[in-house]
Design brief:
Blueprint: H1 16-29, H2 37-50, E1 54-58, H3 63-71, E2 77-80, H4 87-94, E3 98-101, E4 124-128, H5 139-149, E5 152-156, E6 164-165, E7 168-169, E8 176-180, E9 193-197, H6 200-209, H7 231-262, E10 268-270, E11 277-278, E12 284-288, H8 290-293, H9 297-306, H10 337-345, E13 346-349, H11 357-368
Parallel strand pairs: 2-3, 2-4, 4-5, 5-8
Antiparallel strand pairs: 1-9, 6-7, 6-11, 8-9, 10-12, 12-13
Bound molecules: pyridoxal-5'-phosphate.
């Protein structure tokens, strides 16, 4: 057996010498956090790269979700998806908001707009969809429903760094969008995240909220939190931004090879690129049909693990099955058949910028055999 481990992901790391130069500069300036020069530069550089009006940096991708809900004063019930990372729903819980789960579309893994309206009650104030695996949600349909019922839309866009539809960033959809720059993401700052904001006033308010609510030296305008990004990770981010296009292109090449090798395998479903969408190739999910493939998803997952090929059952288990949420009226399997099915069938294959052809062949052979 080939013992080399193939990991599900591998972090994009800046050149160590360049990073060292930044560290020397930061040490000389002795300004290590609180809206320093690297922080300001990264916010501007990201806004330009992502084609969005304003970016506010955060210390991870969970706190901008929590802060977005605070900023828009969202209360009551929020319609969301159970097919996500648990932080999406936790952000609602931390704001004392009741999550209402709506089923997903089998073709995208995203919340199904057709099922949103029937979940709206007088308590509903917002919709929180997720662009799962960076696959864009049905933005227009969701906005139309939000407009009809006077709801806000906050996107958990943790996976959607750089994703565009016909040249327009998906991050401009809804009222606010949030990103994660965790080490596992296409663009990382080790830990980190951001909020995408449309106007200067809101940007100012968000900047207060992520710094305890301070609007000036002596004025606290809201019960803010501390979720600022520091100078060291901002500098790391600036260096990574210079190489992220190359990393995405390398991921694209991996996706093309997986798509070619795995098309037509009985019982294995894959997704191809969507016309008009600029993908970021952050994940490569496959879906295992037990009957047709002759093996369960878990059996395949563990068989690959024995060969030192580490995929990830992402997202499994569904958020709605965790103890905090399973008692909710919307958590039942009957309400979420597509989400349960996808969670039972999915494996995200190893996907990153350092996968070699040999690695890809080993992954593919692990599935074909
Ligand atoms: C969809 C989604 N939302 C939120 C988060 C939370 O981001 P972070 O880990 O940076 O706090 C993640 C992280 O994996 C995620 O995948």
């Amino acid at each position: 057996m080939n013992k080399d481990i193939i990991t599900v992901t591998s972090p994009l790391l800046p050149d160590l010498n360049l990073f060292n130069e930044c560290l020397h500069d930061i040490w000389n300036k002795k300004w290590i956090t609180n809206n320093g020069s690297y922080h300001q530069l990264l916010e501007k550089a990201l806004a330009e790269y992502l084609k969005v009006p304003y970016v506010s940096l955060f210390t991870n991708g969970t706190l901008p979700l929590i802060t977005a809900l605070q900023a828009l004063r969202i209360t009551g019930e929020v319609i969301t998806t159970p097919y996500s990372f648990v932080a999406t729903t936790h952000a609602l819980w931390w704001n004392g908001i009741k999550p209402v789960f709506v089923d997903i579309e089998p073709e995208t893994g995203n919340i199904d707009p057709q099922k949103i309206e029937s979940a709206i009650t007088p308590m509903t104030t917002a919709i929180m969809p997720v662009h799962v695996y960076g696959q864009p949600c049905k933005i227009k349909e969701i906005q139309d429903i939000a407009d009809k019922y006077g709801l806000k839309v906050i996107y958990d866009a943790a996976h959607a760094f750089g994703v565009e539809i016909n040249g327009e960033s998906v991050l401009n959809a809804g009222e606010l969008s949030t990103l994660s720059f965790h080490a596992t993401k296409v663009f990382n700052t080790i830990e980190g995240g951001a909020m995408i904001i449309k106007d200067e006033n809101t940007k100012k308010r968000i900047d207060y909220l992520k710094n305890f609510g301070f609007a000036s030296e002596t004025e606290v305008v809201a019960p803010g939190i501390n979720s600022k990004m520091d100078e060291i990770r901002s500098a790391y981010g600036l260096l990574n931004l210079q190489q992220v296009d190359r990393a995405i292109e390398l991921r694209h090449q991996v996706a093309i090879k997986y798509q070619k090798a795995l098309t037509g395998i009985k019982g294995i479903k894959i997704w191809n690129d969507t016309p008009g969408v600029k993908h970021n190739y952050s994940y490569f999910p496959i879906f295992v049909d037990t009957k047709e493939y002759g093996m369960t998803r878990d059996d395949l997952y563990f068989k690959m693990k024995e060969q030192n090929i580490f995929g990830r059952r992402y997202f499994y288990p569904l958020i709605s099955t965790f103890s905090t949420y399973r008692g909710l009226p919307s958590s039942g399997r009957d309400n979420l058949p597509n989400a349960y099915k996808m969670a039972d069938e999915v494996i995200c294959l190893p996907m990153h910028h350092t996968l070699s052809d040999d690695d890809i062949n080993r992954v593919v052979n692990g599935i074909i055999k």
